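User: Second chain of the day. Same drill as before.
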Amino acid sequence: MSAGPAVEPGDAQLADLNAALSEGDDGKALAIIRALPDALRQRFDILAHEADILGKLGRHEEELVLLDRLVDAEPGMHALQASRANALKTLGRRDEAIAAARAALDLRGDYGKAWWTLADLKTYRFAEDEVDAMRATLDTPLAEADRMHLHFALGRACEQRGEAETAFSHYAAGNALAATAVPPGATAVTDRVDRAIRVFTPEFFAARAGYGHDSDAPIFVLGLHRSGSTLVEQILASHSEVEATSELPIIAQMLRAIGLDRSLPGDAPMAKLEHLGKNRVHALGAEYLDRAQDYRSTSRPRFVDKAPANWLYLGFIQLILPNATIIDARRHPMAAGFSNFRQLYARGVGWSYSLGSIGRYYRDYLRLMRHFDRVLPGQVHRVLNERLIEDFEPEVRRLLDFAGLGFEPGCLEFHRSGRPVRSASAEQVRRSVNREGIDQWRAFEPWLGPLKDALGDALEEWQE
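Assistant: Same format as last time:
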């Protein structure tokens, strides 16, 4: 559950909590909450923040305990039941997640987020009366957020029924509403890729040989959303030496902080990186490792950070953590593009709300990854989703070998791990590998012209 606006600062501790929440420093925020006087800590809004933070840190059992307390205190809050549904889904407790989403709808039948929670279970199939209820609700006055969620949920329902054209119309309507709240940002991404290509040259890295922290613990799995990164993470996390931590916000947050550092010349984070000395670069690597500990729960020597957008920050990662393992999870551009178009994200994926911006984003991604293939040859291992599915064991062995991990049979049985999965692919990776999503986009091909046009040469070059 989103805990809503930051708590009003009443004293120094709450002011510090406000600052940590604004910065997105989940570990620091949790530590502040845990140090609050008991009377403050038991406040409803503080408990709500704590539950939200625990979810972000991957501590979903603890999150659920707090959500249950909050529901007991305020049983009429539909948003709490929806938050319980999402936590239960992450833990693989599908039937309980469905019950919690339905409880939210019992409290407020037009709560679009609860309908979408059911749809996002992937294996959930809407009954006829549920489809009728969603359609009827769309014909009533609604908040835009509820209307947006309902369109995406109805898109899934119609897709299940083989009604491709109607499904696409709902996805298009939902995306149009989402785009009004979050700018697509495709042009900004193009500019950032241009800057990264200018900054991260062979000469840049040669001049900084020996910089950075020497840890080989992190394994970064990056690429476009909906391109197989969760499957790769599950395979790696099934190894006895690897822990999964999900999508960590740390790298992006660190770069933002560098961008705000007025002691460094330059008007953008990428430009400021050129002015970092050896000690500062090493300290940044240590900072990442220290902050990543907040998201870890085991003593395994390696861990996975699968924030997809880290592809934008690959040069920074290589600078501060030169021994990290980098995995590029890649998928056919039409398959990845449509999969993103039909997925409603909680935040931060504004480029996915139009077919044209998805295509441009994919091309920028290919452009930057090709650049690093030239600048850092052999530093990135590419996993093509389609090839992984078709030639599973050999591809898994190649992946493990690149990461410096010995083969373990359990990596082929990734779906038996039982670990929490907090991504749009949570349901899929609890089943054995299958082909069902590979050609899913083809039923919608008549309406995907803008995606094809924007992709251009990427349609032929994506495997290079």
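The longest strand covers residues 325-330.

User: Great, on to the next one.
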